[in-house]
Design brief:
With 333 residues, this protein is of the alpha/beta class. The protein has four helices and 17 strands.
Length: 333
C-alpha cells in the first residue's frame, strides 16, 4: 500500500463524530475493503506464504499460490477508509475530494446507497470524473428490481459494476428414510408434512410409473407415494396423489440429469387436463446415479427459488495490505 487516510476511525457508525487518523488499515472483523483491494491489485501470496514479487506475465500462473494476484498487481494503492467497524458513512465526499487533490488516476468505490436516490456523494463523483479521474463504483446488492442501481454508481460518467449469478438454486429436502439417495429436488415448491409414511407403488415386483390414477386407490390416505420416472408427464404423479388424498409424491429418477423445475403445477401438459396441485412432488435418485449437468442446492423444506441475483461488492471498510510498485494510482474506498 502506497498511502491513504482514515476519515472515520473504528468507532464511527455514520451517526456519531468521526475520529480520523493517518492509519487506514481495515477493522479486524470487517475485511471487505481488503479483499476487494486484493482482487483489484493484490500482489499475490505464494504457496510458502511469501508476497509474490513477479514477474507478472503470461507465465505468472505457472507458480503455486495461496492467493493469486489481482487484476492489476503493479498498481499503487491508496486506501481511503470511510467506514468504522460497524454502521454506515457520510464521509464518501471527503474521500473523493482527497483523491482529486492528491491526483489519483482511478477511484474505486465498493459502497453505495440503495436505489440510486440523489446523494451528495454522486455529485462529488461526477466532479471527480470532470477532473479527469476514472471512477468505478458498485451497482449495489438490491436484486433484480427496477431502479436498483445504488448511488454513487448512478452518477454521470461512472463505470457502474455488478455481477450476475446465473446458476439457479432449486429447492430440495431431506428424507430420513432415503438419506443415501442423492438429488432430492422439490420440483413444484409445495409444502411437505414433517412426517409421513412412504408407500411404494408397484406393478408386480417392479416400482410402478404411477401413470394410472386407479393405482393410487389402495395407497393409505396421508401417505407419500413413491413411483419411478417414465411413461407419462412428471406432474401426473402429483395430480394423482392429490386426487386420492395423499401427502405427496416421490419420483425415482432414471437419468443422470435432473428434470426441469416445474414450479406451480396447474395441469397435465400432455392432455391439457387442468388441475391445480398443492401437494409436494419430489424427484430423487438412487445412490448409483450422479448428477453432473445441473447444480442443485439441498435445503431442508426449502420452497424458495431466487432469480439470478445482482451482486456487487459493497463496502463496510477499506484497507489494503501488501504493496505494488509502479504506475497507476488508485484510491480504494
Amino acid at each position: 500500500m502506497k498511502g491513504g487516510y482514515d476519515f472515520a476511525g473504528d468507532s464511527y457508525n455514520g451517526y456519531n463524530t468521526p475520529q480520523p487518523d493517518a492509519n487506514p488499515i481495515d477493522c479486524e472483523k470487517a475485511g471487505h475493503g481488503t479483499h476487494v483491494a486484493a482482487t483489484a491489485a493484490g500482489s499475490g501470496v505464494t504457496a510458502d506464504g511469501d508476497t509474490f514479487q513477479g514477474p507478472y506475465d503470461k507465465n505468472t500462473f505457472n507458480n503455486e499460490f495461496r492467493i493469486g494476484p489481482g487484476v492489476a498487481p503493479e498498481t499503487d494503492l491508496y486506501a481511503l477508509k470511510t467506514f468504522g467497524c460497524e454502521g454506515g458513512t457520510d464521509l464518501t465526499t471527503e474521500a473523493v475530494d482527497w483523491a482529486v487533490k492528491n491526483h489519483m488516476d482511478v477511484i474505486n468505490l465498493s459502497l453505495g446507497s440503495a436505489f440510486g436516490r440523489p446523494q451528495i456523494d454522486a455529485t462529488a463523483v461526477s466532479n471527480a470524473i470532470a477532473a479527469g479521474i476514472v471512477v468505478v463504483a458498485s451497482a449495489g446488492n438490491s436484486g433484480p428490481q427496477p431502479y436498483l442501481t445504488g448511488s454513487p454508481g448512478v452518477a454521470s460518467g461512472v463505470i457502474s459494476v455488478a455481477a450476475n449469478d446465473a446458476i439457479q438454486d432449486y429447492p430440495g429436502c431431506q428424507l430420513a428414510s432415503m438419506a443415501r439417495w442423492s438429488g432430492r429436488m422439490n420440483i413444484n415448491g409445495a409444502a411437505l408434512p414433517a412426517s409421513a409414511k412412504l408407500h411404494v407403488l408397484k406393478t408386480g415386483d417392479e416400482v410402478s410409473t404411477g401413470c394410472d390414477r386407479d393405482e393410487y386407490a389402495s395407497v393409505p390416505r396421508g401417505s407419500i407415494v413413491v413411483t419411478k420416472r417414465g411413461g407419462c408427464a412428471r406432474v401426473l404423479r402429483a395430480m394423482n396423489a392429490q386426487r386420492w388424498g395423499l401427502a405427496g409424491a416421490i419420483m425415482i429418477n432414471d437419468s443422470d440429469e435432473l428434470p426441469p423445475y416445474e414450479g406451480l403445477i396447474t395441469g397435465n401438459p400432455e392432455t391439457g387436463e387442468q388441475w391445480r396441485v398443492s401437494v409436494r412432488c419430489l424427484v430423487s435418485s438412487p445412490p448409483t446415479v450422479r448428477h453432473s449437468s445441473r447444480r442443485m442446492t439441498r435445503r431442508s423444506r426449502s420452497l424458495r427459488i431466487p432469480s439470478p441475483i445482482l451482486s456487487s461488492a459493497r463496502s463496510r471498510a477499506s484497507a489494503h495490505r501488501g504493496r505494488a510498485p509502479v504506475t497507476r494510482r488508485c484510491a480504494r474506498m
